[in-house]
TrEMBL record:
This is Transport permease protein. It holds the Pfam family ABC2_membrane_3. Belongs to the ABC-2 integral membrane protein family. One of its GO terms (cellular component) is ATP-binding cassette (ABC) transporter complex. GO terms for biological process: response to antibiotic. InterPro entries: ABC-2_transporter, ABC2_TM, ABC2_TM_bact-type, ABC_2_transport. It is found in: Cell membrane; Membrane. Keywords: Antibiotic resistance, Cell membrane, Membrane, Transmembrane, Transmembrane helix, Transport. It comes from Acrocarpospora corrugata. One of its GO terms (molecular function) is ABC-type transporter activity.
Length: 246
């Protein structure tokens, strides 16, 4: 087993032991969808949503809930904890560089977020007849970009806070405005047009709209993908600039 593979396997095992984090990222979004789909108001077609039911329109928001939870609540705590304990500093003196650990963290959290997305789509389809995305490649591109944005944001949080307690606080502060723009408090499509245009400039507002477009069968708007790609580049550049290994 190579050093990189060993680190990846170890990180996956350690993250898996964080039962609370795994529950909120993997289990909570599909469970919330299961409950919401039981409400009569969520099962009726809504003309304001183009004939979709509310439960259908909420799927992108719940996918993004898992992504945001992973990036703001789970990943920063691990990275800050490693820095606090001197693990990153000690790794810098071995053939396994700290960047290997950071890469492993990103890969594991990406896998967890995508696994949650599969559960949301599968459970929604089985319990409530939520249709699968009609443009699957576009859906996957939008979802992967959203994951990259969230994890880059998590790396920035880990870069600027000195302790795990502050990482939790900072992640919680960032969490609520992000899930609001993602549509968790209500689908973006029902907002006034000017509000939609503003929200589409945010990374997860753009992600919610892109996922909705792909679900309806179209390739996501290039402007929405461009917004997410732009945020990803900016946040990754900031994470590289600010992240401290010690």
């Amino acid at each position: 087993m190579s050093a990189a593979t060993a680190v990846l396997t170890t990180e996956a095992r350690l993250i898996g032991r964080n039962r609370a984090g795994v529950f909120w990222v993997v289990a909570f979004p599909p469970l919330l969808l299961a409950v919401l789909g039981l409400l009569p108001s969520f099962r009726a077609a809504d003309p304001a949503l183009g004939g979709l039911r509310m439960v259908d329109a909420y799927v992108p928001a719940l996918l993004l809930l898992a992504v945001i939870m992973s990036g703001t609540q789970v990943m920063p705590g691990f990275l800050v904890g490693y820095r606090e304990q001197g693990i990153l500093r000690r790794m810098s003196t071995t053939p396994v560089r700290p960047l290997t650990l950071l890469t492993a963290q990103i890969l594991v959290h990406t896998g967890i977020a995508l696994g949650s997305a599969v559960l949301v789509l599968a459970l929604g389809g089985i319990l409530h007849g939520v249709p699968l995305p009609r443009h699957l490649p576009g859906y996957l591109v939008a979802l992967v970009l959203a994951v990259l944005v969230a994890l880059a944001l998590g790396t920035i949080i880990a870069a600027i806070v000195p302790t795990t307690r502050l990482a939790t606080t900072a992640g919680t502060i960032a969490f609520f405005p992000l899930v609001i723009t993602a549509g968790l408090w209500g689908p973006v499509q029902v907002l006034p047009e000017i509000a939609q245009r503003i929200i589409e400039l945010t990374p997860f507002g753009a992600a919610a709209q892109a996922l909705d477009q792909a679900m309806r069968g179209g390739w996501p708007s290039w402007s929405l993908l461009g917004v997410m790609a732009g945020w990803t580049v900016v946040l990754i550049a900031a994470a590289v600039r600010w992240f401290r290994w010690e």
